[in-house]
Amino acid sequence: MSQTTEQDLTLLLEAAEAIAGLETAEDVLWYLVRVVHAHFGPEAVSVARVEEDGSLLFCAALGGKAEQVIGMRLPPGTGIVGWVAEHGTTLWVPNVAEDPRFYVSVDKSTGFETRAILAIPIAVRRRVLAVLEFINPSPGVSVEETSALVQVLALLAAPAIQNVELTRQVTQIQERYRRLFDLNPVSIVVLDDAWHFQEFNQAACETLGLQPEVPESLRLERLGIEGDRLPELAQRAAAGEVITWEYEIPDLGRMIEARFSQLHGYVLDGPTYLWIGYDITDRVAQERTRQELLSMVVHDLRAPLGNIISGLELLLTAYEEGEEDLPFAEILSISLRSAKRLDQLVHDILDIGRLQARARSLLLTEFDVGALVREAVEMVVTMAEHSHQTVRIVLPEEEAVMMQGDLDLLRRVLVNLLDNSVKHTPEGGWIEVRVQREGDVVHFSVTNNGPPISPAYLPHLFELYFTGESGRRRGTGLGLAFCRLAVEAHGGRIWVENPADEGPVFHFTIPQPPLGELVREQGDAA
Predict the structure, then answer these.
(1) Which residues contact 236 (CB under 8 A, 6 or more apart)?
(2) Position 31 pLDDT exceeds 80
(3) Mean pLDDT over all residues of the chain?
(4) Listed residue (326, 323, 325) closest to 335, CA to CA
């Protein structure tokens, strides 16, 4: 074996070992450039990587003007390097000046003179990954032998480049999967056939409290899996069934909807199972609130409806039996007030949604404030008298106060505040409505001699569905929310004062004229 052959074999063995330990395609290409430049001594060596769009990016170079070449990009098929990339064959051009494929612009931009090029593709299964250019070989170098040796180096480099690229892609996919896995708001747990936890995401850790120190048995309980259910779950999952159930984690105060199935394609020897958990705590609470609200709405509707039915039954009996001494006017008055109360409740429910969506236009009229207050009091006086309560009206002593506003909405605001006071005032107590003009606003207040409101509930009084303290008579949680929306639609303000030694005082002010965004004159109302 000649010394040259031994040197070549040593070069190839060292190259194979070195390339196997490199981590990126960039590292492999740079190694190839350094080895070729050091071993064969041409004026310049460069490598152009074939990009996804077919363009060629010079990513490594040594020798003349190398620093200007690195980073240069050529369109697909450009120059000798582009031709080799497209055809996948080695090309020796001893005189580039006579070859029309030579791209002279690179020399012009760098000031380097290219005389001859040996271009060798670095390819895997006919897919060219990069092209190595051996520029201006040293005198006396056998191009044929050089080409053969460099092609072997290219053969060593190509699969390494592909492998490190595949490894990079797999790593990126794994990282992307891990991010998606951990960022998924749904709790995900993977179990093996011995019911050991293989992995779980951040949502499972936070929702179920799956810290590392939690014992495996308790972890299964957090998944809603009792020990005696394991064989049944495994059997049903093996049959392709997705088992669903709901359960509570008392110590965490959470309700979970769980789904359990067999997981195929996971890298484990035995069966693997996928547990997915949805935190339905808020949904269950909302459903419970909805049911409670429905019950309370029905309860509040039944009272006036019962009065109407009772009144009609009395009138029907009197008609059938010819009774003439019944207080017909009083019965009809009670029934009418109850019907109006029923109508108000229905309108409150409907208008809350419209006011929230700003779809309820104000119907502006001018009216006497005193008449408005008396109408509102008339609608609750029967209920107040039933509890032996007194309702007082305090108006300015001077001439009648006139104001602009949506008469129906403001009447219902007052009725709701009065109704709230009647409910929370003790038997034999009193309720007072006070109105006064203060500059450019009309100021209303409703107070009573009932107990003060718990300070903890004050920030929530005007929130939708807030029903207050359990010790108080509970309503639907709609009345005060409606008041807030109706007052704010006028550009006004509503608030409550809560003296420690007196009953609460509800205030609201309506600017004159109203400042609401959705104001319509009554004649223009849609």
Answers:
(1) 243
(2) yes
(3) 84
(4) 326
Contacts of 224 (CB under 8 A, 6+ apart): 245, 247, 256, 258
- Give the residues across from 91 on adjacent strands: 119
Rounded Cα–Cα distance for residues 378 and 384 (Å)? 10
Tally of CB atoms within 10 A around 161: 26
Q: Considering the domain 185-279 in this protein, what is its CATH number?
A: 3.30.450.20
Answer yes or no: is pLDDT of 140 > 70.
yes
Instruction: Say how far apart CA 192 and CA 262 lie, in whole Å.
Output: 10
Residue 389 burial (10 A CB sphere; 0-12, 13-18, 19+): buried
The CATH number of 3-171, from 3.10.129.10, 3.30.200.20, 3.40.718.10, 3.30.450.40, is 3.30.450.40
Residue 374 near residue 339, CB atoms below 8 Å: no
Nearest by Cα to 231 from 274, 195, 189: 195
- Judge contact between 391 and 379, C-beta under 8 A: no
Domain positions in the chain are 3-171, 185-279, 284-339, 354-524
Q: CATH number of the domain at 354-524, please?
A: 3.30.565.10
With vertex at residue 31, the alpha carbon angle to CA 27 and CA 36, rounded to the nearest 5 degrees, is 155
Distance, CA of 297 to CA of 344 (rounded, Å): 12
Q: What share of the chain is helix, strand, coil (3-state, %, to 5)?
A: 45, 25, 30
Enter the DSSP assignment of 92: E
Dihedral sign for Cα 221, 224, 226, 232, please.
Answer: negative
Q: What is the pTM of this model?
A: 0.48
Q: How far apart are CA 101 and CA 88, in angstroms?
A: 15
What does the pLDDT look like over 33-92, one tens digit per residue? Answer: 999 998 888 999 999 999 989 999 999 999 989 999 999 999 999 999 999 999 999 999
Strand partners, 118: 92, 134
**354-524 shares the fold of 3-171:** no
